[in-house]
């Protein structure tokens, strides 16, 4: 099966989800990492991958960015990719008769792939990973927002309606940027009194039950001695963050205002011209 579509629309995520839901072993291969400068090494890498998949069956063998390793033959001066494509064709014909080996591939440029790989019996099934519609954008935003703290003002329906043309990766980045805005806003609101409480030099020193013995009499500590002793006992004190294990900074919640500000600064990663060009393919 060939997964093709716009960049950032979840082709790689879909392949890993298929293997997980089906309970199959999953071998993930980045296309360019197969290529090697030594003669014959690239073809050997392809053979080794199919041997691994056969030994681990039932197994999904997933090739990401297939256009980088299987372009149309006859356009490579070195002949490396031509030999890799030939090896792919041989292994794909062999994998057809092997039970439990499933080949998935993903690409954003299906027009660059050698047509021989797309004939029946090889990658004969092609599925389009299109841009998400409004309902799908809402699902993506809801899933990303689950892992973050939000307040009651968040309206994801409004955000889903205003993000036409955004890919799944764009929507994820949108929520992450709004979280960063919330963090920056919270750090700016830290007033001077909070900073002073964290500094033993300016904070209200605790009533330390220690005295200096001089000539058999207890003399109270001076302020300088209290500061020195407070610094030394802070890591083990009852109010120390090291002792309590509590965080010094609580993650702030994301509001609708943060999402709107992030949306105002965001742009779809896929331009209209690029989207139209890919749609024609």
TrEMBL record:
Entry superkingdom: Eukaryota
Residue ranges occupied by any AAA+ ATPase domain in the UniProt entry: 1-133
Keyword Ribosomal protein found: no
GO BP annotations, alphabetical order: protein import into peroxisome matrix
Keywords for the protein's UniProt record, in alphabetical order: ATP-binding, Nucleotide-binding, Peroxisome biogenesis
Keyword rRNA-binding among UniProt keywords: no
Ranges where the record places region Disordered: 228-254
Sequence intervals crossing the membrane: none
GO cellular component: cytosol; peroxisomal membrane
GO molecular function, one term: ATP hydrolysis activity
InterPro entries according to UniProt: AAA+_ATPase (IPR003593), AAA_ATPase_domain (IPR050168), AAA_lid_3 (IPR041569), ATPase_AAA_core (IPR003959), ATPase_AAA_CS (IPR003960), P-loop_NTPase (IPR027417)
Reactions that this protein is recorded to catalyse: ATP + H2O = ADP + phosphate + H(+)
Gene3D superfamilies given in the database record: 1.10.8.60, P-loop containing nucleotide triphosphate hydrolases
Family from the record: Belongs to the AAA ATPase family.
Name by which UniProt lists this protein: Peroxisomal ATPase PEX1
Organism: Dimargaris verticillata
